[in-house]
Design a protein that fits this description.
This protein has 680 residues and is of the alpha+beta class. The protein is built from 17 helices and 24 strands. Strands 11, 12, 13, 14, 15, 16, 17, 18 and 19 form a nine-stranded mixed beta sheet that branches. A five-stranded mixed beta sheet has the order 20-22-21-23-24, covered by helices on one side. A four-stranded antiparallel beta sheet has the order 1-2-8-5, covered by helices on one side. Strand 17 and strand 18 form a beta hairpin. It is globular, with a radius of gyration of 28 Å.
Length: 680
């Protein structure tokens, strides 16, 4: 068992370090109340292109800065530029703000570190090697709850015109800054002022979760800032009601709709009819939380029959066979198994939320986007496969071991942990909306959803252990289990083969060769250990240390993952690109857009069983449908942001855009009839 512990603890250590390495580093400054720094996304901007720069602001604890519209009090940031000839600066782009009420006055503020982005246009007349000095005078107001102090500073950047290359660290930092900018909603809102009430109707799908909704108007004259906002739903429309600022209606109303923590949409509204208020959507969001929790629980149950779980059916089948033994031991092992599943889902969910809080555009199953994780899993699955085949003894899952032993409970816990870690990359029915909701709900509610997913995944085993009628129908332990265990090694060997292939897809044939070599070294060490065990000798610690050395060496020599690769396209399919998608839709072309990953078995099943079928291809070609593919095998912030905008946190996701119409979200399990019916 120590061998599996070594591999699992190494995996856990590696996994815990990922959030730390993904955090955007802090910095200091001379400004006593709000430190400011000017950063460029590229140190060598290209001629004729644009360059994004950021005013990165860090208030001291207890201090805050202001949004472009400060609310009832305060002053937003202003900038005066001194730029080289031909260089122009776009408007300031502010992140989604926060609300702060002081003495009855509403303030739109930033109480933590924030970044204001600006796009610079570099003239095509510049040449590589030209100096590009950027100078800006920034002025802002820094306040606490008691006092305000004007702040400001002269900020500068000295760049050199070049090839426009962006360093990985800068790309990650600016992806984090952009993640907090409001996204375009894409649909126009309507508003009306009646009887002193400002009412705003925002198109927002009823199925999309929302938490702590709030509308930040960008200009005066629409609503009274300090008045409470009532938020409700009426079908696919979000209704916001507040006290009007006056009796006259402005020509347009613009602002930001906050839908979660530092998440929001840019809103533009014109006068028009506003439907009556519907079900309450503001406040604690208890209804949304309960619905998301129910979806996660049901999604976890259904995940047991999804293709994502097929590679680890051997471990689950062996657990089912064990459940036919002593009832008390079966209950202990079922609880241990459930704890392993729930704890792992909580760890994955917590790490995901921490990464996103640090600015990384990652989603569910992000662990399988790291080749180091794949390598650890490859060696772990190899060890389990050879144990099931009888090469060496592992009492925690040995069919002849005592079910009530301490090792059996420990083994059940780690089996549950492995099941959750490997089984959750793809999202099954009901999981997509639930996990999407978890990304915008408060921390406690989000973790409850991840725990609900784990509980649903473990629920069948708990039912077997605690319901005698079900357990009575399970086969009793006996000599047949030894043969059954040998048969169950086959899917585990196939899983190891699939992991080796996935490693090759992520880091090339060199990385796959390193993974196979490490797996072969693991097999030789386990063969040596098995021989000593049969001879009555020890050697577990020697083998464990040797395996740790093999794993460390393999990770150290593993090639680095390159930039997010383009989607593999076949036939008329094109790689995902938001600008290309908008162009196709503007041309009136129907588009079938799907997101996939090599580690998502549900994705691969749908592609082989439905998407890549001849009848589907012919139907799409006849109807002029353009197929667009987003490959998320390696982490891609662009795809991550798009998925988040659809209320999803993982793949698969299937969208169909009819000509001139909005997207239809398709089921996560496809058939050829499902796709051909779209155009027939």
């Amino acid at each position: 068992m120590r061998i599996i512990y070594v591999l699992l603890m190494t995996l856990a250590t590696l996994f815990v370090t990922i959030p730390a390495t993904a955090q955007i580093g802090a910095f200091g400054g001379s400004e006593p109340n709000i430190a400011a720094r000017l950063e460029a996304e590229s140190a060598t901007p290209a001629p004729g292109k644009t360059l994004t720069i950021a005013f990165v602001m860090t208030p001291k604890p207890g201090w805050h800065g202001y949004w472009e519209n400060p609310g009832d009090a305060g002053i937003g940031m202003t900038v005066k530029w001194t730029l080289p000839s031909g260089v122009t600066a776009g408007p300031l782009r502010h992140p989604v703000p926060e609300t702060l009420i002081i003495s009855g006055l509403m303030n739109y503020v930033y109480e933590g570190r924030y970044a204001i982005l600006v796009t610079l246009n570099i003239p095509a007349t510049m040449k590589p090697g030209d100096l590009l000095p950027i100078r800006a005078r920034g002025d802002w107001l820094a306040c606490t709850r008691e006092i305000c102090v004007p702040g400001g500073g002269d900020l500068s950047l000295d760049l050199v015109v070049g090839d426009g290359n962006i360093a990985p660290a800068s790309r990650a930092a600016f992806d984090g800054y952009r993640a907090r900018l409001p996204r375009a909603l894409g649909s126009e809102a309507r508003y009306a002022i009646q009887n002193g009430q400002f009412r705003l109707a925002i198109p927002y799908p009823a199925a999309s979760p929302i938490a702590d909704a709030y509308f930040f108007p960008s200009k005066d004259g629409a609503l009274a800032y300090a008045s409470p906002q009532k938020v409700s739903r009426n079908g696919d429309t979000l209704i916001i009601e507040a006290k009007a600022a006056g009796t006259s209606a402005p020509a347009t109303v613009e602002g930001i709709l906050r839908t979660g923590d530092h998440v929001g949409f840019a809103i533009r509204g014109r006068p028009g009819a506003v439907p009556s208020a519907g079900s309450q959507a503001s406040g604690s969001g208890a209804t949304a939380i309960l619905l998301a929790l129910g979806g996660a629980l049901l999604g976890g149950i259904l995940l047991n029959i999804m293709p994502c779980v097929f590679p680890i059916l051997s471990l689950k089948a062996l657990g089912l066979a064990k459940a036919g033994g002593d009832p008390r031991a079966a209950r202990r092992e079922a609880v241990a198994y459930a704890l392993g599943v729930v704890v792992t889902c909580l760890a994955l969910g917590g790490a995901l939320l921490a990464l996103r809080a640090g600015g990384a555009s990652v989603g569910w199953a992000f662990q399988l986007q790291d080749p180091r994780i794949i390598l650890v899993l490859l060696l772990l699955v190899t060890a389990i496969a050879f144990n099931l085949a009888g090469l060496f003894e592992l009492r925690a899952i040995d069919a002849g071991g005592a079910l009530a032993s301490k090792g059996g409970v420990q083994g059940s816990f780690w089996t549950g942990a492995l099941v959750a870690f490997v089984a959750t990359p793809c999202t099954g029915p009901f999981m997509g909306a639930a996990l999407g909701a978890a990304l915008i709900l408060p921390l406690g509610a989000a973790l409850a959803i991840f725990a609900g997913l784990g509980l649903g995944l473990a629920l069948p085993f708990l039912a077997i252990a605690f319901i005698p009628a079900i357990r009575a129908r399970m086969p009793k332990p006996g000599p047949w289990m030894q043969r059954f265990q040998r048969i169950l090694s086959i899917p585990m060997f196939l899983t190891a083969l699939a992991l080796a292939w996935l490693l090759g897809q992520q880091v090339g044939t060199g990385g796959m060769t390193i993974g196979i070599a490490a797996a072969m070294a693991t097999a030789l060490l386990l063969w040596w250990l098995g021989g000593r065990q049969r001879a009555g000798s020890g050697g577990v610690w020697i083998a464990s240390v040797a395996l740790a050395v093999v794993l460390a060496g393999a990770i150290a020599t593993l090639p680095r993952t390159g930039e997010a690769r383009e989607a593999k396209t076949e036939g008329n399919a094109v790689a995902f690109d938001e600008a290309r998608l908008a162009q196709l839709r503007a041309q009136g072309k129907p588009v079938f857009l799907y997101f996939t990953a090599d580690w998502c078995l549900t994705c691969k099943v749908n592609e082989n069983a439905a998407i890549d079928r001849t009848e589907v291809s012919e139907a799409f070609t006849k109807a002029g449908v353009v197929t667009m593919v987003g490959d998320w095998t390696n982490s891609d912030p662009v795809i991550g942001r798009f998925l988040e905008g659809q209320g999803r946190s993982g793949v698969p996701l299937y969208l169909f855009y009819p000509a001139g119409k909005e997207a239809q979200t398709l089921p996560q399990v496809l058939t050829p009839n499902t796709l051909t019916a779209l155009v027939n």
